[in-house]
Amino acid sequence: MFKTRVAVDLTLLLDEQYPATWPGHVPFVRRTWNWYETTASGPEIWSSACGPYFTEVLIIDEHIGTHFDAPSHFLSYRAPGQAEPMCGDQVDPAVFCGDAVCIDVRDIVSGVAGISPPIQPTHILNTESQLGRRLGADDVVLFRSDWDARFYKSGPEGRAYAHDVLVTKTAPGWPAPDVPTIELLLERGVRCLGTDAPSMGPAQDGAPVHLAGLGGGMVFIECLGNLRAVPARGATFQFLPIKIARSSGGPGRALAWLAAEPQQTLPTD
C-alpha cells in the first residue's frame, strides 16, 4: 500500500491568548451561542435554546492569523472608467497552489528596534542558482524566518510577535523583502508570496512593499507557521481562504504536501 502524500499544517492556531491580530485591529473574540444543554459555567449561562448541539459566534479581522492579502488591501478604488483593484473573492484559487520554494532567511537579523532587515534580490538569485533554474509562475515562494516558533506564544510572551516591534518599539522587526526583491519576483512571474512573519512588509513601513506586490498582481500569505517542516524544494503548497464578498483578503488553512515513502505491507495468504 502506498501513501503518496503527507499534509503538513502551516496554519497558526487562533485563540484569544495568542497574538493573532495586527496591533490596533479587532482582537479575536468568540462566544458560545448554543450549548448541548442549558447550564451555568462560572458567570456565564450557556443555553440550548436552538437544540442539543454546540456552536460559537466569532469576531475576526480579515487579516487574522494565517491569512492572505488581496490587491484591494492596499490599492484604493480607482476613478470611474478605471479598473478596480481585485477583492479577495475575485482572486483565482489556483494562485494559492504551486511548487513550494522555501527560502531560509533566519540569518538576516537587525539590531535596531522597530526595524526589519531586508530580504534582498541576492537572496532570490542565490536560490535560483541552487535550484539550477529561474523561479516562475508555478512557484510559491515562502520566506522562512521561524518568527512563529520564536514569538507566537500564549499570554504576555506573545507581545514579542508584533506588539513590541510596532507599538513599544523595544524589539527588532522580522525579515521582510524590499521593493527591488518584489519587483524581481514579479519579473519572474511569481504571483504568490508567503512569509511566517506578521507581515510581508517591513515593520518600519509596510506600504511600499504591499503597493509594489499587490499592485503587480501578487497575493501575499502572511503569518504562516511551521515552515521549518517544509523542504527548500520538492513540496506542493496550498492555501484555502474563506470566500468573503468585496474583501481585502481573509484567513484560511495553509498546507504543504510532501511525498511520502512507500509503506511495506505484510503478505496475505
What CATH architecture of the largest domain do you see?
A: 3-Layer(bba) Sandwich
Number of E-state strands:
14
Distance between the termini: 16 Å
| Tally of domains | 2
| Mean pLDDT value | 93
Main beta sheet: strand number and arrangement? 7 strands, mixed, barrel
Percent range of helical residues: 10-25%
Shape: globular
Write the CATH homologous superfamily of the largest domain: Putative cyclase
Indicate the proportion of strand residues. Answer: 25-35%
> For the largest beta sheet, what order do the strands appear in spatially?
6-12-11-9-7-13-14
Q: Using the CA coordinates, give the radius of gyration.
A: 21 Å
Structural class: alpha/beta
Low-confidence stretches: none
The succession of helices and strands, N to C, reads: EEEEEEEEHEHHEHEHEEE
Within the CATH hierarchy, at the fold level, what is the topology of the largest domain?
Answer: Glucose Oxidase, domain 1
The CATH top-level class label of the largest domain: Alpha Beta
Output the number of helix runs.
5
